[in-house]
Amino acid sequence: MKKVYIIGLGIGDLDYMHKKASDILEECDCLIGAKRMLKDFQGLNKPIYESSNAEDICVYISQGEHNNYGVLVSGDSGFYSLSKKVTELLEKKDDVKVENIPAISSLQYFASRLNLPWDDIKYVSAHGRNLNIISNVIFNKKTFILTSSDFSPNIICEILTNKGLGHLKVSVGENLSYDNERIIEDRAEVIAEMKFEGLSVMIVHNDDFISIDEAHNSIKDEEFVTGKAPMTKSEVRTISIGKLKLKSDYIVYDIGAGTGSISVEAALKLYNGTLYAVEKDEEAAALIEKNIKKFKTYNIEVIKGTAPETIENIPSPDACFIGGSNGNMDNIINAVLKKNPHVNVVINTITLQSLNEAINCMEKYKFKDVEIVNVSVAKSKKIGNYDLMMGQNPIFIISGKGSGLL
């Protein structure tokens, strides 16, 4: 049986590689890894295979004649590492036994250089991933980011600054553990003007983060900044958002967002997602911006204009709330389904005409699990020494899931 050791080399400088890893390297018959990792072990005079592609590495091992292979990976083998894919592929083979050798990760090292505990840090990677920077930052006190060429520290800080978060403290580590190591701490808006090399990590500090508890609370209507724009009331808001069946990483549309009450309360549940609030009225769009700032829901993007035109160039939705359509409901739903045929849709209407339009659309596009709920809410109001129940307009809530048949 072949033995494959996946060896974490640590943070970079080999002084940080532990003895167990060194001893196993000596035992290996063949070393595999990227060029920059193999160069430090040329003196061992062992056969080498240069690759950082998991599939190629596994094919080479399967076809090879050696007994012990050492696959070299940077950092810790269990922290955003090539090890994950290699281990997954090799463990399917009956003639291969895999053992991972851990090491010091960039998170551990960088936190130690800043004298920070790291057990409460949210960590994410920008390497080959669709990273939602804003949501991670607003929901966490400290966010560690493995940066990439596309998401370098300055680019990430530019994104934060453009969203009104330029005041946040950011710590950046470049070339960690090497002689040219550089550690900088400043506001995001300052770091946005700097340049960094490829081997960089960062921690964004946000003492004013949104706690998970806030996502579970209903927001009182009077807490919102309001104006002439319509606002979905609290009880209806709670039911409507529940019908959207949100997951934390969803892309959500709020079409006809009005004051932004649905947008804000839904966005508080999107720890890794984004909400697009579509609103044609300039005054209403300004109210949404004010409520975003008040509730710190910077994972909301305000899209000014009418649907469906304005949604053509934004990411496909997992869920869509329609609070206003201006008689254009069919075109809106058609456009949304073209972007995601399995989208969850919730429509709120007051008039019977709009209810009829919504039902016709659900039937026309063969929505599944269609449900119609009529909500009538009355809330108490103090009049002198008496409490009177004051009725609100009845609301129809229509929900369904795209069937994929468009």
Can you put this structure into words, describing what you see?
The protein is of the alpha/beta class. It is built from 14 helices and 19 strands. It has helices spanning 19-27, 35-38, 54-63, 83-90, 106-113, 133-138, 153-162, 188-191, 212-215, 234-243, 261-267, 282-295, 329-339, 352-364; strands at 2-8, 30-33, 48-50, 68-73, 96-101, 122-125, 142-146, 169-174, 182-187, 200-205, 251-255, 274-279, 300-304, 319-322, 344-349, 368-375, 378-383, 386-391, 395-401. The strands form four sheets. Strands 13-12-11-14-15-19-16 form a seven-stranded mixed β-sheet, with helices on both faces. A five-stranded parallel β-sheet has the order 3-2-4-1-5, sandwiched between helices. A five-stranded mixed β-sheet has the order 6-7-10-8-9.
Instruction: Give me the Rg, rounded.
Output: 27 Å
Mean pLDDT: 93
Low-confidence stretches: none
How would the global form be characterised?
elongated
Order of strands, widest sheet? 13-12-11-14-15-19-16
Proportion of residues in extended strands: 25-35%
- What share of residues is helical? 25-40%
Structural class: alpha/beta
Oligomer: single chain
- Distance linking N and C termini: 52 Å
Number of strands: 19
Q: Helix segment count? A: 14
Largest β-sheet summary: 7 strands, mixed
List keywords for this structure.
14 helices, elongated, five-stranded parallel beta sheet, alpha/beta, 406 residues
